[in-house]
What we know:
single chain; 169 residues; alpha+beta; minor pseudopilin epsh fold; seven-stranded antiparallel β-sheet; four-stranded antiparallel β-sheet; 3 helices; 11 strands; elongated
Amino acid sequence: MRPECRRGFTLIEVVITLIVTAVLTISAFSMIDLSGSRASAAAHKLAADLRYAQRLANTSRVRHGVEVTNATSYRVFRDDGGGGTTVSNPMTGSPFVVVMGADFIGVSLTTTLGGAPPKAQFDSIGRPFEGSVAPVPIVSGANVINLLASGTPAEIVTVEPNTGLIRIN
């Protein structure tokens, strides 16, 4: 009597198929460029941080703002009449400095904000202003921070003159 012939896969064939599938999946995901998604996340974070500085200015009646310290970082500060004091991050208690390379790899900043270094500052009612000695409300012009993904413009955060409305375009 002849033994019955069983059809199917052996355990070794199944394991090899799973390994090949996993390797192909990992290589496909590594080729996807996520910098555009990172720029979008960075734009939402920056807009939230600008709104936070605006609320701090409104609630404390002391000018606050966001300063773009270089192409890859910014800080939230309290205007003390000089260079400004970096505020504490309410989540961590550490200085409120955001470094793009740490959280948003491949994202950098350019801006049309005034000042050296460039700043978006808010007065006690949340309006954007220029100058530190005699602050003047910003009534026109573009107050824009561009977020670049791998060197290409990806997101734009705008602080509207007069109102201080913060938008992501």
